[in-house]
Amino acid sequence: PVSGGAAVRPSLCHLYFPSVLFFLIMEVLFWSVFFSGKHKSSLVNDPDQPENSKILKVAIIGAPNAGKSTLSNQLVGKKVFAVSKKVHTTRSQAQGIFTEDDTQIVVLDTPGLINASKVKRHQLERSLLVDPWISVREADLVLVVVDVSDRWTRNKLGFEVLSCLAQNQHIPAALVLNKVDLLKNKSMLLDITVELTEGIVNGKKLEVRSAVQRFCEKLRDKQGWPCFQDVFMLSAIDSEEVETLKRYLVVGAKPGPWKYHSGVLTDQSPEEICTSAVRERLLEYLPQEVPYNVSQTVEMWHENDNGALDIMVKLYVTKENHLKMLIGQGGHMIGRIAREAGQDLMNVFRCEVKLKLSVKMKK
Asked: Which of 53, 72, 95, 178 is least buried, going by the fewest C-beta atoms within 10 A?
């Protein structure tokens, strides 16, 4: 084994545009619960909820690489979900939690919606196929995220998304147009909105300029969903823009018992957060199919007396050339992944982290 160390608001509808006039994001409390034992105990402890508690479970769905996990991280206020430019970074459902005063929002981050043939063709986990559907059924609200910078997909909701919405019509849904910062012609946003909503938001017809109306009337194959309650336009990497959506969720919470202790930010264990951070770097630096064929095992997790964490993770590969790429010349690649993933963990756990990675051929 080789190792490396460490808005403009048209009448009759709600359209939310980027704004800097909303509330500042509150500091997340009780970060100490993320240390291994304390975090686990907080997950099983009874929630410390107030007398008049409110809660909202929000499922975030959309096509692969639409920015769902980035949005989830911004809502929670900390990077607890892996993010990369490659598709299928999120492999299964994970929950993020943010709690403000008497209100708790549970964010259900899901894999991108794909069909069964793609799962079979690329030998993907079954969780990619079923987890988004399970999350929607558990949710009080569905956020459908669309990447408006992708000219191939921005003008229609995929069949899987539409099917999921159609089979869960009783659950309210809102449309989130993401990556608006990458769209040079911002006037296209209204056109995209009309197409994705079929010109109807909150049960009422959008009042749009006549050119858009004529365009909409000519559509033969509708690719939108006419039952969205609201539409948000934002960049998920901008916390100020996401804050508008965050306020919307807090206001929409209903009376009910909290699901988690107020100090918990995710239902993932510290070990799962660690492997997620490593996987993110594998996806970022390794080419093509290589990162999807690397498996991980946490070999050691030790908390020192001073609060520092010593972590050892073993990476398994199935091909000799994959092993060489993962190690890199002189151990450069494995060392870089260990350092950067270790830094991510320090930002999450708020303590010193010494992460060591080793690579081994899987028999």
From this structure: 53
